[in-house]
Amino acid sequence: MTKSHALTLILFVVLTVAAGSLVGYSSIPGPWYQDLQKPAFNPPNWIFGPVWTALYVLIGIAGARVYIRERGNWLPKIWFLQMALNLVWSPIFFTLHRPDLALAVLVAMLLAILTFIAMAWSRDRPSALLFLPYAAWVSFAGLLNGAIWWLNPL
After folding, report:
1. What's the helix, strand, coil split of the chain in %, to 5?
2. 82 partner at 20 to 30 Å CA-CA among 102, 119, 121, 151?
3. How far apart are CA 54 and CA 51, in angstroms?
4. For the residues 85-92, what does the mean pLDDT come to?
5. Where along the chain do its domains lie?
6. CATH class in words for 3-151
7. CA 53, chain centre distance (Å)
């Protein structure tokens, strides 16, 4: 690994974790969320921070890999698209109190994640594999988001 590749890796991981943390801290669940009916499978609130931090590290590593190897191609663009969708979900759900719109964003995000995995599978398999836990968690988050929307009609 060259020095510039190491710097790219560090920047992607730090910026991805920082962006996710900033969005998370600026849209902390408040009384509105506490008062919602939630499904039985809703995990405790404390689990989300550690899970997302670990996922953001994996997402950052995959982003750096495809940026280094595929710059100018579609794979980094898909990575940035899924990241943008990821970062707008929390404000839509927790700040705007719109689980319906948040679910639409989450479905688009999952499609971007799955597209990334499919495109990376033959080009950069480690990046595709790094996205598998992310796809699983976002699928679960979609189920949770949908259940909350269903249990709490607007």
Report:
1. 85, 0, 15
2. 151
3. 5
4. 97
5. 3-151
6. mainly alpha
7. 10
